[in-house]
Structures are given as C-alpha cells and as structure tokens.
Amino acid sequence: MDLQNYTFVSEFVLQGLCTSRHLQKFFFILFSGLYVVIVMGNTIIVATVVSNSRLHSSPMYFLLGNLSFLDIWLASFATPKMIRDFLSDRKLISFGGCMSQIFFLHFVGGAEMVLLVSMAYDRYVAICKPLHYMTVMSRNKCIELVMLSWTIGFVHSISQVAFTVNLPYCGPNEISSFFCDVPLVIKLACMDTYILGILMISDSGLLSLSCFLLLLISYTVILINVRQRATGGASKALSTCSAHIMVVTLFFGPCIFIYVWPFSRFSVDKLLSVFYTIFTPLLNPLIYTLRNKEMKTAMRKLWKRHVTFQ
C-alpha cells in the first residue's frame, strides 16, 4: 500500500458504551457515583494502612495498600474521559492520548496481576510456613515484590506501546469501545497486522494466563493445607483466602477472555471492559474491608482520630 496517498490519523473516535442519549445521561450519573466511591474507598484503605503502624508493618496489609493504590490508577486511566464523553456528541481522543491509555492500562494491569501473585505467595507462607513467616516476608522482601510487580508491568506496557505507536494509521479511526486497547487499535492500521497482533496479544494473554495459573496452584496448595487443620486459625485463613480468590476471579476472568481468545466475535467486549476497569477496583475495597475485622477496626480508629482533630 502506498502510504503517501493517505492522510495519517491524528485522533481517534471512541464509540463509547451506547448511542442512546437517555442511557448516556443515566450512565453519566451511575459511573460518576461509582468512580467517586472507587477513589474514596481505595484511598481510605491506603490511608489506613499508612497511618496504622501495625498494619503498615504487616506484609499482607502492606501489599493490600499497594493493590488499592493500583486500583485507583486502573479506574482512572479511562473512566473520567468516559464519564465526560457521555455528555459529548463526538467522543474524540488524540493519538497521544490513545497511546497513553494503552500504556497505563497495561502498566497498571500487568503490575496488579503480579502483585496478586505476590499476595498469594504471602498467604502461602503465612499458612503453610507460619514459623518462618516474618523471616521470609520481611520488609525488604515485600518492597522487592512490589518493585518486581511495577517493573514487569512497565516492561510489558512498553512492549505493547512500542509496536502500536509505530504502526501507520491512515484510514478508519473509529474504536468500538470507550477506551483504547491494543486489539482495537492495531486493526485500524493500514497494513497487515495479523501476525503482529498475535504476537502482541499473546504477550498479554501469556502474562494473564501464567499469573492466573500460579495463583491457582498457590491457592490449591493453601486450601489443601487449610483442610487438614480444624483450628480457629485455619478458619480465619480460609476466610482471608476466599476473599483473595474472589478478587482473583473477578480480575482475571475478563482479562483472560479478552486476551487469550482475542479473535472471537466477543473480542474486547464492552461489558468485560467495564467489569475489569471499573467493577474490579470497586469490589476490591468492599471484599477486603467488609470481611476483615482488623481493617474495619483500623478504619474506625482513623475516622475517630480525624473527627477529634477536626
């Protein structure tokens, strides 16, 4: 194809969630409220962990605080624009803005996947090797696990953006979603991207699937160990692990469906995209706090301290 005969794309058109004006007004109110709850809920968790020395020194809560921090970013890379677009007739995004969304989606998403594996490892050590827990899960080890998750997320994201940004975009510019993602953007390039698409999407699919399998193995081993015990500690461990398993299922289910089977007719389904970018960050604080007495007690202390200070 002679690219000189085409005008290169400088912006993309997002189709959004729907075309109905009435539904868009309803979604504007709904997602505005959900976004505020997501940011406030996860911010409260981060503030509680940071302000409470007991929680901050606990490996589990240290990792949970980092998960909530990532959830704020996961909900923020596209949701504010989606909310604003509900009131716009033309939902435009610049080329640079589109690449930025891809970068932050895969950076934060990749980091969160690895962090969830780290949290499963933390529970494995706590339940299967309790006498060595504080030695194995030292503060330095926790920091290393967090830094590893950020590094893998960054490298994964750069690999996605580096190929996508250099493709020639000179024809159609409509993206059938409310944000930019690799499978949707590369098919707009004016060249054959089938092989490249398989390689890039396989990268995301491999990361999602490998992390999910590691989590599956970890929690299987944990549950086998818990089943062999009949103590109150085992019951508490089972409650904690069930919350983790629920979060893992909610987060990895849509991601695996999108990136392991990207060429099906359900490819990058809008409902799944909404689920892992909005509902997962919303459910994480609810699952971890409502089922955790220690976290709820620490939040009440933080609230009382704030009220007293006021």
TrEMBL record:
It is found in: Cell membrane; Membrane. The chain crosses the membrane at residues 26-49, 61-79, 99-121, 142-163, 206-226, 238-261, 273-290. It comes from Erinaceus europaeus (Western European hedgehog). It holds the Pfam family 7tm_4. Belongs to the G-protein coupled receptor 1 family. The keyword Iron does not apply. Coiled coil: none annotated. Putative odorant or sperm cell receptor. This is Olfactory receptor. InterPro entries: GPCR_Rhodpsn (IPR000276), GPCR_Rhodpsn_7TM (IPR017452), Olfact_rcpt (IPR000725), Olfactory_Receptors (IPR050427). It comes from the Eukaryota. It is a multi-pass membrane protein. Keywords: Cell membrane, G-protein coupled receptor, Membrane, Olfaction, Receptor, Sensory transduction, Transducer, Transmembrane, Transmembrane helix. CDD domains: 7tmA_OR4-like. Residues 41-288 form the G-protein coupled receptors family 1 profile domain. The keyword Repeat does not apply.
